[in-house]
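Input for the complex:
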Amino acid sequence: MAAAKRIAVIGSINMDLTARADRHPRVGETVMGLDLRYVPGGKGANQAVAAARLGGRVSLFGCVGDDSFGERLLEGLRENRVDVSHIRRVSQESSGIALITVAGGDNSIVVIPGANSHVTPAYLAERREAILESDIVLLQNEIPVESVEFAVGMCSSAGKAIIWNPAPMRPLSGRAMEQITYCTPNEHEAALLFPGTGSLNELVEKYGGKVIVTMGERGAMAWERGDFLRIPPRPARVVDTTGAGDTFNGALAYALASGRTLREALSLANTAAGLSTERYGAQAGMPLHSELPERWQ
Ligand code: RIB
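Predicted:
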């Protein structure tokens, strides 16, 4: 079997300050929490960890601050076998922080970017060679939009496969949209990104395989060679959905890098995302390769 392809993840690295509560507060309301945990997160870091825990060869490109969170975040990434040698520690800057409330299995998140704002086109240009050593490039939306567009242009000219996860939702230029290989919105992001396109069926068909829509507990949907791919969900005993979308994207990159077809890759990604919701925390819940069902071993 051919060696697995390399994956470059370009994106955010955050410390998640996660409060658990019995329910989410309404606007203007205070509720008492159950506990507070500090857990590594950030959509870029989460997706890198998801792919690496499944066995992917992953390098993460991003920035942390020179604070104690920065050190802990790098340590966690190393423990998960993510290559952190290209990550920049920005002096006199704090690491990205996400304030998360988890209640009833669902979450709400506010992100303060901190060092993630230093993932600039100049930072990426300096690491061009290292980024282009990879075959698949995975991006999200927690770094500046001009950096996402720069990375897409650079990687597409070099013929790389590009997966763009539009979370949190912010549109890309028409040119960048043409250059990406796969775009992976959830239903809410899809409605904002492609207004007026009609039903999800019409959307995935119209974009001919470029758009993969994740639908949480209803699975995922895509289009391949003239056919709908409807990937059923993996039933889960949900504890915390934080990072489920990131697990899906990281696992998708891993599966494509290891030579799976799109249908297989989506099915594996759905399974991994389902498993990730059964444990608390974004990265802590992500499955190891050995935890996947037998058919994926
Ligand atoms: O997708 C979940 C992630 O979003 C969290 O880990 C948090 O850091 C925010 O980036």
